[in-house]
Amino acid sequence: MDKMWTVLRREYLSRVKTKGFIIGTITLPLFMLAMFVVPVLLVFLKTDESKDIVVVDQTGAVFDSLYAALDETNEAGKRLYNFIKQDVLAAELDTVKASLSARVDRGGLDGYIIIPAAVFDSAAAEYYGKNVSNEIENDDFEDAISDIVTAMRIERSGLNAEQVHKMVRPINLSVKTSGEEEKDPGFTFVIAYFLGFFIYIAMFIYGAIVMRSVIEEKVSRVIEAVISSLKPFHLMAGKIFGVGAVGLTQFLIWALAMGLLSLYGLQLAGLFVSDPSKVQSVDLPSISLMTLGFFVLFFVLGYFLYSTLYAGVGAMVNSEQEAQQFLIPVSLFIVVPILMMTYIITNPSSQTSVIMSLIPFFAPIIMLARIVVEPPPFWQIALSILLMVAAILGMIWVVGRIYRVGVLMYGKRPTLPEIIKWIRYA
User: Fold this and answer.
1) What is the pLDDT of residue 383?
2) Sheet of strand 51-57: strand arrangement
3) What pLDDT does residue 225 have?
4) Integer Cα distance of 415 and 396 in angstroms
5) Which H, E and C letters describe 225-254, residue by residue?
6) Whole-angstrom Cα distance, residue 68 to residue 34?
7) Is 321:211 a contact under the CB 8 Å cutoff?
8) Which of 212, 207, 298 has its CA nearest to residue 244?
9) What span, in angstroms and rounded, lies between the C-alpha atoms of 407 and 400?
């Protein structure tokens, strides 16, 4: 055991002291900060540029209501949308549209809106602008005109507009769990997918680190000096746990950064907007402590499981180029759960979801997704964890024996019968 701890300590210290580890550990929290703060700011920061937009209202009844509906102003007090009314005869419409389009193209006008006389029946309004990629602005125009036309249709039918709106007002569906806790299904989907995808990326990254470490030692032949005095299991366990401790250290730092960001991110975003109180009204998804606990657990178990596979691949090959062929089946084990995520999240209790969450190679992502969406019975969670632990110990034993022989083999790709011989005689 002392020798295993020596290997573990060497693997850990040789990595946490590198500039790459320090830079990578600092960079991700900064990236998360930017990814969190920037979208929040974009919700509240609108351009201060005032736009001149001509409105050709052939109905003669929509313009005044549209002017009043979209009356937002910038910090200078000017209207964001300076609507300019232009009366046009039906026979002159095509000529006027060509003239307005030319003005927009020259930059003398930001855009124009055509509201046809038949808009109360079936015709649609038109908007022409030099840049129409701003979906928020397009939706503002569409919603305002739609609301105005709908209200006028009701009035023209002789019905009471207020009563009609009361009768057709939508119903808000309050989504709750069995514990009477209200949940947002959109947030739940995002959280489940994000946590699963994080584990997916982590298993690729840290597994590749373990594989690269084995290949480097094999090529440099440093391992020959120590392999005769170590049992395969201790050698493999020390290497995997050492690199795993590096990943866990980095992960805990990132988790702390995420926790602080969730607590104080809105206050930080409020420093960059004119009215901080608006930012505080933003609803953010919350992650329970139970979910975070299972996330850490399945992250660690998934890492240990896949690291053994990557280490085995590293012991069998002589370079990273050769490893690519052997990594295909390993990668499939990681990719399949991600491809199934949408189905698992929408059907967490189906027979397929239950079976896949009990398969050790799929469980880190699939079982975690089920826990986030609809916590399964405790016996399923416990069985999944036990199966993963058993698989990890078994894989460390198998790959350790491959490792002991494989690191001494040079210049030849092993065949499956040869790998079986290594396991039997190591």
Assistant:
1) 95
2) 81-85, 51-57, 111-115, 126-129
3) 55
4) 20
5) HCHHHCCHHHHHHHHHHHHHHHHHHHHHHH
6) 37
7) no
8) 207
9) 11
Give the DSSP H or E segment for 56.
strand 51-57
Question: Mind listing the pLDDT tens digit for each residue in 208-262?
Answer: 877 877 777 666 655 555 555 666 567 667 777 777 777 778 777 776 776 666 6
The parts of the chain modelled with pLDDT lower than 50 are 179-180, 182
DSSP state of 125: P
Structural tokens at position 173: 């569906």
> How crowded is residue 102: how many other Cβ atoms within 10 Å of its Cβ?
11
Cα 271 to Cα 79, 265, 279, 399: the distances in Å are 25, 10, 10, 53
- Report the pLDDT value the prediction gives residue 393, as an integer from 0 to 100: 86
What is the C-alpha to C-alpha distance for residues 201 and 143, in angstroms, rounded to an integer? 41
Residues 149-191: tens digit of each pLDDT: 888 888 877 777 777 777 777 776 655 655 445 455 556 777 7
For the residues of 156-216, what is the DSSP string, one character each? HTT--HHHHHHHHPPPP---B-TTS-B--HHHHHHHHHHHHHHHHHHHHHHHHHHHHHHHH
Q: What is the dihedral of CA 12, 14, 15, 18, to 10 degrees?
A: 150
Residues of the chain with CATH 3.40.190.10: 50-168
Query: At which residue do the structure tokens 């609301």 appear?
Result: 147
Amino acid letter, residue 391? A
pTM over 0.90: no
Residue carrying the six token digits 């078994």:
394
Q: How many residues does the chain have?
A: 426
Asked whether the beta carbons of 53 and 86 are under 8 A apart, the reply is: no
Helix-then-strand count for the chain, H and E: 16, 4
Fold of domain 50-168 = D-Maltodextrin-Binding Protein; domain 2 (3.40.190)
Q: Which helix (H) or strand (E) holds 127?
A: strand 126-129
Name the token pair of 61.
């009844």
| Dihedral pair phi/psi, residue 122, rounded to 5° | -145, -20
d(CA 111, CA 52): 7
User: In angstroms, what CA-CA distances link 170 with 69, 164, 387?
Assistant: 21, 12, 48
Q: Residue 59 class from Cβ within 10 Å (0-12 exposed, 13-18 middle, 19+ buried)?
A: middle
Would you state the structure tokens that stand for residue 150, as one six-digit string? 């709908």
What radius of gyration do the chain's Cα atoms show? 31
